[in-house]
Structure formats: structure tokens, C-alpha cells
Amino acid sequence: MDTKIKQIDENSLILAKDIILCGGVVGIPTETVYGIGANAFDTAAVESIFKIKGRPNDNPLIVHVHKDYDILTLVKDIPDYAKLLAKAFLPGPLTMVYKSRGKVSEAVSCGLDTLAIRIPSHEGAQNFLKFVNLPIAAPSANVSKHVSPTSAEHVFNDLNGKIELILDGGKCVGGIESTVLDCTGKIPVILRSGLITRDMIAQVAGDCREYVYKEGARALSPGMKYKHYSPNCRTLMFFHEEIEKAVKEYNDELAKGVKAYILCDDNTAKLINVENVLNLGSTDNEIASNLYSKLREGEKIAELIIAVAPEKQDGVMVGVMNRLSKACAQGK
Question: Please, which residues have CB within 8 angstroms of residue 186's CB and are 6 or more apart in sequence?
């Protein structure tokens, strides 16, 4: 199969819709990361996503719809606080989980009675979703466990020959996946942290909690289970207060002839003053936006990436630390 990258225009949208209606999958941009999308009503198409990615089939998917789509045709109830959150943050990087009506394929939610729905703000994604006018199940468009893609080129590098089309919407500005919020209870609960933070949600909804995943429990959301976001090279991670240990490790590895790089924010880069640095930038949003692209850059030039956590740990950095810790995790 030849994988084509096409700019988003009428011709590419016609091709994309044809692929979707024929049970195929398409690489699509969002404001966070690129996704690999299929018709959420088509079980065979949804199952092909898992096969293409090598994704475990107990890891649920998110359904993407355009901003005018009537999600009440897919879910049973929308709490008042969820309506307020939707008004405040959608379209945007917030996925909301509701009780499902069971209209989409069971393969989407991996047997759960809930459905995760997202309305991306990316103009190209909205154009695609309006054009096909179907709920599109779409996880990140990468090989499972690898670093999530933030450009069409990243998708091509992972899935060349496995999918027919990638819609090129430029570099993703958000950089980390959407916040996933359980809206099935009286109080919203964050299942996966992202650019919409707990404080932001609480200010609108009145309260917000965070779910703590326990090893062995069933995954209620993408990103909860398994090693994720990992570059194809060795990784180590140090907390910010362990900067000296990180630099010592870096120097020791260089002395052994290992191509080591330190991944850190701009403030840390100035403190350590070493040659091989993957600089994530200064602000929270810069760090989030650059995380995956720097991990992918690093795997091309480094044998070892030594990550130093940002000093700031709240807000958007909760989501960044979630991704960084999983990227540097050992095991499955």
C-alpha cells in the first residue's frame, strides 16, 4: 500500500470520505496530536485500528465529532456541569466520557458501557469531520507505545504502507493528548491529564477530582495502562532536584562513548550548561507542544535520552509529567 500525504482540500476530503465509507482508516490532524481515524459504527474498521497500531484491545478509543454533531444520539445523558464545560472549552482539547447508548461499535469502548467523545478545535479536523459527518474513532496515529505524532511526517514514519492517506494539517500546537474527563458521576473526574487542567475544570464545574489508576485495574481511558509515548532509544528520568545526578549520568555515559542527550526545559538547560540538550522551551504550553517532537528528534540522534523533570509540577505540567514518566517507564 502506498501511503500518501495530502494537504486538506476538497479533493483530499473526498478521498478521505471514500476511504472511511469503504471501511478504511485515515491519518488526521488535531490540535493535540495526529490520530488514525475510522468509522465508529464499523466494527471491522475499528478493529483494524488496533491491528495497524499493534494496540492492546482492552485500551478504549475516543470518538471524534464535529462541533454541530448531536452527541445525544450517541450518549444517554449530559450532566449540567458537562454542558457548562462544553460551552467553556469545546471545541478544544477536552474529551468527555458519558454513558453510551450503544450505537457505535462495541470495539470502540472495549466492552465498557461508556463512550469518550471529543470535539477537536483544529480547523482541518473540523473540515474532515463535517465532510464525513460520522463519529470517527481515533487514537494517536503511531505504532503502539511509540512517541505520539505531532506532524504528518511523524505519522508517515510510523505507518507508511499501513494506511492509505494522511491529511496534513501542519504541526500540532497542543502537543500532548486531550484531557479525558469522566462525566458519568455527580462530580467530574480526570482520567487523563492534559491541556485543560483540574483547576480550569473546577472553576467551571465547581469541583473536579483526579482518578488514580491502580495496577491491574481495567483501563477506563486511553493512556492509563501500558508503557506509552516512548522513543526508540534508552531513556532515564530524574526529578528536578536531581539535576546534579542527571548531569553526572550524562557525563559518565559520554565517557563510555554513549551518545547521550539531556531533555529539559530552557531554565534547566541554562543551569546545567551541557552540549547535548533537547530543549523543550520555557513556558508550560511550549514544553507541552515540544515534548513529542523533541523525543522523536532525540531518538534519531541519541542512544540515551536523560530527561530532567520541570521544576513546576502543577497545571499543564501534570499532563506533561504523565507523558514523560510513561515515556521513560520500564517494562510493558
Answer: 79
